[in-house]
Amino acid sequence: MDKRVIFRGRTLAYLLILPQMLITIVFFYGPASDTVVESFLLTNPFGRFSKFVWFQNFERLFASPEFHASVVLTAVFSGCVIVISVGTGLLFAVAANHVLRGAAGYKTLLIIPYGVAPAIAGELMLFLFHPSYGALAFALGRMGIPWNPLLNSNQAIALVVLSASWKEISYNFVFFLAGLQSIPAAMLEQAAVDGAGRLRRFWYIVLPLLSPTMFFLSVVNLVYAFFDTFGVIDAVTQGGPGGSTNTMIYKVYSDGFIGLNLGASYAQSVVLMIIVIGLTVMQFRYVERRVQYELT
Amino acid sequence: MRFRNAIFTIVLLLATGFWQFAAQAAPIEIQFWHAMTGKNNEYTLKLVDGFNASQDKFKIVPVGHSNYLENLTLGVAAVRAGKQPHILQVYEVGTQTMMFSGAIVPVEEMMKEQGYNIDWNGFLGPVVGYYQASDGKLMSMPFNSSSPLFYYNKDQLEKAGISGPPVTWQELAADAKKLQASGQKCALTIGWQFWTQIENYSALHNIPFATENNGYDGLSARLVANNPRLVQHIALLEQMAKDGSFSYEGRTQTGAVPAFTSGKCSMTFNSTGDYANTAAQAKFNWAAAPMPVEEGSPVYNSIIGGATLWVLSGHPKEDYAGVAAFFNYLAQTPSQVLWHEGTGYLPITLAAYEAAKKEGFYEKSPGLEIAIKQLTRTKPTKVSRGVRLGNLSQINIVFDEELENVWAGKKTAQQAMIDADRRSNVILSEFEQLNSKK
Fold this sequence. Notes:
Largest sheet of chain A: 2 strands, antiparallel
Largest interface: A-B, 39 and 40 residues
Strand content of chain A: under 5%
Distance between the termini of chain B: 74 Å
Strand order of the largest sheet of chain A: 1-2
Strand content of chain B: 5-15%
Helix content of chain B: 40-55%
Oligomer: heterodimer
Distance between the termini of chain A: 14 Å
Radius of gyration of chain B: 24 Å
Number of strands of chain A: 2
Shape of chain A: globular
Largest sheet of chain B: 6 strands, mixed
Number of helices of chain A: 12
Order of helices and strands of chain A: HEEHHHHHHHHHHH
Number of strands of chain B: 10
Number of helices of chain B: 20
């Protein structure tokens, strides 16, 4: 039986959600509606004048083959980042959960990368993988793998995926570890007594119990991959070679901030926003059904 | 305890009182936002301190940011918030954006209004030419100007049996073969590819890069990079990329300078701004030379890079007297010589060039004199004076991307130029649509 707390009257409830609503309005709905309005304008970067151009910003966008390529790339990039960072985070958490001696130090070390700013993460990767001075690039060359992300698109994409995933792994690790530690030991012991092996226990007990965490992380990582990765890309490839790492968010940054071409940038933001909202809605409608919030 | 509080209050009152008094008598503060770092910042501060010490009516307050882009982005935000600095340093690709910003005071006009009769003819032609409106009025104050140079490794060329730097592109291609035959895999690398191989190549051969005299005469300008001469040049580099004699090391100088100074590549194109770094890092005999040109083609001036100082509008009138006095100070020969010799940026006046020559500066840094001569060897034509296009920073990226597609073997030189034109022209039509009166 659920115990429900019942408020008399709704005033208190509204008062309690008010601060959160205010923050959402000021930091999300405000800028987001501004973006929608601006996507119909061509605007002087200094805000001195603008022209209303109906859907022309969008028409130009959809007519551009480079934009189509960018959408496809963004799907590939985000998919890879989510799979790698969630998968590796889970793997590390499961492994760290088994460590008995020096566990605290071990866990701390795994968490540290989350404190690294995205641009610095990119810069670090560049130090390792730059074809001219990267240590790992040198090692790859010695192994007979011609490494040149400055011209090889696939290698460049692999490099930005790796750079973007690296620090997210720590974030995911923390959540998975917390999830693992909240699984009652008694349940696992009981299963072990019943003769379930490690893999079975993981598959039938641990994984279902982690599914809310995994669902939460997949949503957060999706938003991260779509919105927060321009710093990494700017540090590592600047969208190159030949635009092959120009994800949608990097193009928004590059057209808006470097190019000061605000109309085009706003239009791309709107498209990006619609895609991410759509994907999130889909996640909640279709994926969340399979999430088990309580043991049955 | 109470006594101590009383004393504290009195001291505080006195201090704030004095501070207010001091503020009233203080000179007018002029905010100067720039993006100079390291040695360049050091010399910027020397110029500012020199000006501040030379008079007591105005005080230039320099605020340094880490790069041009950050400086411009913050400048834009400041204008939008109504808290703009008086002086904003902007890179050359932002020229058209600034001219149409609706937020600036044209420099030539301001200097005249403030009673300074500057002899602009005493400035280096291409330096002022890049920043003039089509009617010849100077829009911003030249500050740090650079020019492209050709750098070569004397030891490696000698080993390959080459006696001097290539003067033409045909010679360069032949030298590359000789270098490869001598065991030098990478003959050539290129820094700042859009600036050195597209903009400057076009200017040096007087090839129009855009209609409307490269955009100086109107917003309806569109790119014509898909022209036989430029395509043939990119095709030569494409061929060299294919046979490995040209190694691509990235869009700016960060890869090309070390590739040259480590001896990996024998020849490179870079800016005069990279001269000091090259000198510090190269442990072999090297020299700078003028940019190679096509055989039999008449040769024109190169064009500049770097940044200028834009005066932002919306300040009290007396402030601009300070801005003008500062600019006047910057244009003086001693200031220019100090700047030129300290940073390696080009002097903006001919008088400063002569003065540096008299001091024997070019015996130490011959490459910089070569750059000045290359820049001033002909009077700039309507094509060779520069490129005046809206959102040029975006067009720069388009070309970087398309050139990378050529070096990677994904597109032919011609296809890349066709695509670069198409993509850039969308950007230009947006700029025209926003800024034309209609």
